[in-house]
Fold these 2 entries.
Entry 1:
Amino acid sequence: MKVSIERAAALLKCSQPVAIPTETVWGLAARLDDEPAMRQIFFLKGRPLKNPLIIHLSDPKFLFSCCTIKPPGLHELIDAFWPGGLTVVVPVNENKVPSLARAGLPTAAFRIPDHTTTLSLIKITGPLVAPSANRSGSPSATTPAHIIKDFGSWLPILQTKTYCRHGIESTILIWQDDAWHVGRLGAIGIDAIATVLGYEPARHTAHSDQPLCPGQLFRHYAPQARLTLSTGAWKEDDASQYDGVLGFSDRSYPGARRIITLSTSTDAASAGNALYSALRDLDRFQLKSVYVDINVPASADWLAILDRLEKASQS
Ligand code: TXA
Ligand code: MG
């Protein structure tokens, strides 16, 4: 059900979660001052209560009013990347940010999305929490059709003409032990962040047992299909082992039963934009076993895509 900005604001005021567009992926929003609505979001998504939410703002005032320290580099990061695909996690005054949004942590995550319609909504409602608008564990939603597939057509969806430009979630930076750390790779490249900070924020490996973001502990981004990632070249013998290939439009996969392409192998931006639709297509075509061509450079622009594919391939 598509709704206008005014209708979305009215529904949110009555504790009804609404799907909101952002330049990264769609979010499922509730007001930060509305605990029953936040609870509904966890319930609707099937999301563990231990996994905190990102608070979406239309300006940084609320962040400055509740953070207990202003880490070096915070202002520069905000100036460089907001509105945009960067989330910052900082220590907060626990009386000012509801525990449910923080999952009980002494920190909270904030970003200003770069999406005019959603910013207009937040100006009316105040801060909105919004996890990605997908069932927990499934690929994130980058189109209204993805949201309807996961939740049904009853869910109010904020009407917009613009799509998710990045198609990959925000990059998360966490202030901890006197330095910025990468909690999640995402829409903003680490190279651009390093230029602003003057150092490259430390990164935990994908296999870390104690990820900085609680969300990284849970199964993520995954289609039903079993994914086998390959950094090598496709061999015709591979065809018999797989129902299909997730690959690139400038490469050929002779003998493959079905080929789904992201983009050309040199276009990371388009690949990121197509990623979640492509992962969802694997299930739409009921593929059980899929060869995934990840023969791309491990350069900053591919890192977030490789990270998502690696997580999607874990059972
Ligand atoms: O691009 C995005 O970030 C999208 C759009 C809708 O803004 N949102 C999104 O939210 O991806 P979600 O809930 O799917 O992922 C949020 C991540 C989770 O991994 C969560 O653990 C982490 O942010 N997070 C939130 N608060 C945190 C905190 N205080 N400390 C560490 N990680 C936190
Ligand atoms: Mg998510």
Entry 2:
Amino acid sequence: MSSSPSYQKLRARFREAALLRSTEGVLGWDQETGLPPKAVGWRAEQMSHLSGLVHRLTTGREIGEWLGECEVAGFAGESTEGVNVRGWRREYDRATKLPAALVEEFSLTTSAGMHAWAEARKVSDFSAFRPVLEKLVRLCQEKADHYGWTTCRYDALMDIYEPGARSADIGALFSELGPEVAGLIGPAMEKAAAQPENLLAGHYPVAAQQAFNREVAAAVGFDFEAGRIDTTTHPFCTGLGPGDTRLTTRYDESDLFGSLYGVLHEAGHGLYDQGLRAEEWGLPAGDAVSLGIHESQSRLWENHIGGSDAFWEHWYPRACHHFPGLTKFTPSQIAAAARRVSPSFIRVEADEVTYDQHIILRFELERGLINGDLAVKDVPEAWNARFKELLGLTVPDDARGCLQDIHWSMGSLGYFSTYTLGNLNASQLMKAVRAAHPGLDGELASGKYSTLLGWLRKNVQELGQTLDPPELMRRATGETTNAKHHLEYLRGKFL
Ligand code: ZN
């Protein structure tokens, strides 16, 4: 199969696209980290030129012919060739199924959408965003119809981010999770209230935070010979090629935790990136499988490792070295301060217990909008009512309610659920690796993370897109994604 001329042509073509995409990625990283303001226009032209090139390279009629030849020849589903051909087919179909006029209208509407959303949010008035959101929802419905779906239109949009995800399954999962989490919030808050708020208020110099973050990131296995950490307003991780993974974080000198947990989160994404097969980098066999699996890696290192008592027991001397004021506290006081539970209106500020409630709300509303069960004009009312049920709070205004996220204004409907899938997957993976390595907790307590990382490399990262996410989880943990293990983890940690 690998000697088939059409496979070789496809591989060469998509490798060229991967080179161009990663070049665009370098420009995007540079734009976020160090671009002079006057260079913005030229940078936008550079990047749009590159994406135009990639689009032409990956949508030509010949690609369809080569794919057809490979598919007729047949290939083993889990071979590198099989995985690549299947992934390219998916990408090719997605890129060629939409009529050019729809793509153009979508792009124009999202530009208008982001502007209208920003203005509407400033004055906290949903009605100013409503007309463009109505249009965006209609265009997303059209997109879904072009991609194709069987039982639920929303599935076609979720599939972009989470291959194989079905809203019936996710909906069932979330209906189990939501009420259980709602029941946890009160007791977890009571427990948090036993400790004084702002216990760790103090001054944490940026240079000391950077030094500590770097020690921790290196210890969990992030390879600084193949990556780096920079500073941006919005933290992210971007893989720019084999041997080049960039993380960013932000610093607040009054907060010990923000940059550290930001780095652990992004380093989790970065470890996935560094664990992909280098020789297939940028091709389906060497690319991440889904957002829900990606997020499982970041949540695992951020919450299960960084948020544990064992973490602070081990890192206490180094933390005190960098921040001498911490000697006033015990490791378990620091760990408890890091996991305070307090329901709030804003998703991105939510704690670990309440976070998924924010996601469940968005998933339900998006599904309703795309399936036609919810009218855009009814969004604020539906949002506020469901928010009250899930989090027990009365939303005071649209800015702190349905206008808080940028996603809908960009036409990005379909991926909120992957954040919660990430949380569920992380708990489930931790359960499985503990079962496979009974001594794991002892190792983690002494700051040894290589067994855990090695297991994740073998069972998740090195697979690329070999298995779709449900099958990946089934083989790694014995079950497809479910809520049981995450609920057990939350109860253990917060009650
Ligand atoms: Zn993430």
